[in-house]
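Wed. Picked up where I left off yesterday with glutathione transferase. The coffee machine is broken again, so keeping this brief.
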Amino acid sequence: MEASSEQQKKSENSSSSSSSKLLLYSYWQSSCSWRVRFALSLKGLPYEYKPVNIRKGEQFSPDFKRLNPLHFVPVLVDGGIVVSDSYAILQYLEDKYPQRPLLPADPRLKALNLQAASIINSNIQPLHMLSVLKHLEEKVGPEESLSFAQSNIEKGLLALEMLLKDFASRYATGDEVYMADVFLAPQIAVSTTRFNINMSKFPTLSRLYESYKILPELEASSPERQPDAVR
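Structure written out below (tokens, as returned):
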């Protein structure tokens, strides 16, 4: 009877969560937001897009501050649950919506995916975010600001190249798209288009990106396809 009751509770919770619409606070050019859009697309989860124009300072509004006091996108709202930071959001989606897993069952491959995601989330993207580069540009000039970003991006990409070169197949850790790929695809796109990084230095990552570019889920989540995109 206890097992049956527990199963019924899980079923009710699942039905309740599936009926509530996810809200994603996003900015079209944000690579962090792109990761979450990509993950939602892979999992087939519909959501309502809530644009936050960080160039106009909309992230500093009182309403958004209540969602994330750090004033960063993305933020995911799922009913009464609010989750900020793309890494935390993807972990939440894995737990709450296990369909189309973004982490493999194998412990070694799972660790590789988490490590790759963490390198991008903690050691690459924060060093080229808009607020950091704007501050540096004001202090030392635009050339030094760009050089700082490029140097740190290349350092991180080299670490990823070394981490994944012996495990990569069609995708970062095999023939399925996992969390490492969800973080890698937007990061490589931004690195090449916004910061003019020469990806020939990173042959494994370059090959992976060619596989990413043909994924319909990546295309659907790309910056240019978002309702707040400036064309």
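Quick read: Residues 107-221 form a domain with the Glutathione S-transferase Yfyf (Class Pi); Chain A, domain 2 fold (CATH 1.20.1050.10).
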